[in-house]
Amino acid sequence: MRDSIDQRINSVRAATVLTTSYVAGTVLITTWKYNQLIVLVQITLGSLTSVEIKIEFSPDNSTWFQEVIDSPNSLTQFTSSQGDRTFTASGNYRIAIPIADNFIRISAKGTGTVTSSSCTIDAVVARL
Question: What topology does CATH give the domain 6-69+80-127?
Fold first, then answer.
């Protein structure tokens, strides 16, 4: 049996039609007690080709650091690049990220024609 998990659910972006430029949702303010971020994304593509999500972190709510995605080049080397997550189908998605940050900002944009598109983003911060 599992002990209860200390968690907080936050609405980052209400269901809204996307734009073709990144629009940041509500900034999450966390504390040292949270070490896990679960991003819940609900996407309706409509006429879009894709939806992109960008996740950034900050110690001071001023200087932002974008999530990095590592791609292995070999057993000992990686190429790191700023991480944009691309979704090409409507659906409900879950992204899990370990955290040790005071502020988190999640942005979304659409690629293509935004007609009939929608994106909702919620975030759960938890202590595991």
Answer: Jelly Rolls (2.60.120)
DSSP state letters, 12-50: EEEEE---SS-EE-PPEE--TT--EEEEEEEEE-TTEEE
How far apart (Å, rounded) are the C-alpha atoms in residues 100 and 91? 29
Q: pLDDT (tens digit, 9 = 90+) per residue, 19-66?
A: 999 999 999 888 778 899 999 999 999 999 999 999 999 999 999 999
The CA distance from 71 to 106, in Å, is: 22
Other C-beta atoms closer than 10 Å to the C-beta of 62 total 7
Q: What is the pTM of this model?
A: 0.87
